[in-house]
Write a structure and sequence with these properties.
heterodimer; A: mainly beta; seven-stranded mixed β-sheet; B: mainly beta; six-stranded mixed β-sheet; globular
């Protein structure tokens, strides 16, 4: 069974750093793209970027380029999303999702989400 | 403001058929396939329709998708109370080189 399991909820202060994770299982982790999607409170879905764990090829949405870093560790089948200096506006639910095809917008497996709260 | 445009809300009574529209442009829906997601309250999105009109295994045939030009639609027939959720359309955008989403439509079953 394909599963994406994300790390738990985080409460951070503005200016702090953070790295959240997404662990894949039940399939060949290095063979499928993993994307990160943001959902701010009461709002819609926003694509942040994507990584191909097989060779760490990474792409970013222009809206998130320079704001976050996406990385992966194929030895432990895990993708990461990290911030070097959080802002209150980063408060959101973050989902990882797998796609069979990079250029499709079709994500057939999703993690359960990681809630990030940034507050002083 | 989302790149793809959806109505913010839709409603229907049990058993009815409802449709949700999604309007895009020549850089996304006009040249790429459309996907639909269902997000039940407090849960992660779930892929409902891919490649315009294909249903993943396990999705009831009450759900159907279509696309014409730069617009797409999701139809739900035989509406059930458990269909109450947020629905999002998505498509690859060649200008942004990434997928874009609609703002979501909240479906209420009266």
């Amino acid at each position: 069974e394909v599963q994406l399991v994300q790390s738990g909820a985080e409460v951070k202060k503005p200016g702090e750093s953070l790295k959240i994770s997404c662990k894949g299982s039940g399939y060949s982790f290095t063979s499928y793209w993993i994307a990160w999607v943001r959902q701010m409170p009461g709002k819609g879905l926003e694509w942040m970027g994507i990584i191909f764990p097989g060779d760490s090829d990474t792409r970013y949405s222009p809206s998130f380029q320079g704001q976050v870093t996406i990385s992966g560790d194929k030895s432990i089948s895990t993708a990461y999303l990290q911030w070097s200096s959080l802002k209150a506006s980063d408060t959101a639910m973050y989902y990882c999702a797998r796609t069979d095809y990079f250029g499709s917008g079709s994500y057939n497996y999703w993690g359960q989400g990681t809630l990030v709260t940034v507050s002083s | 403001q989302s790149v793809l445009t959806q109505p913010p809300s839709a409603s229907g009574t049990p058993g009815q058929r409802v449709t949700i529209s999604c309007s895009g442009s020549s850089s996304n829906i006009g040249i790429n396939t459309v996907n639909w997601y269902q997000q039940l309250p407090g849960t992660a999105p779930k892929l409902l329709i891919y490649i315009n009109d294909q249903r993943p295994s396990g999705v009831p045939d009450r759900f159907s998708g279509s696309k014409s030009g730069t617009s797409a639609s999701l139809a739900i027939s035989g509406l059930q109370s458990e269909d109450e959720a947020d629905y999002y359309c998505a498509a690859w955008d060649d200008s942004l080189n990434g997928p874009v989403f609609g703002g979501g439509t909240k479906l209420t079953v009266l």
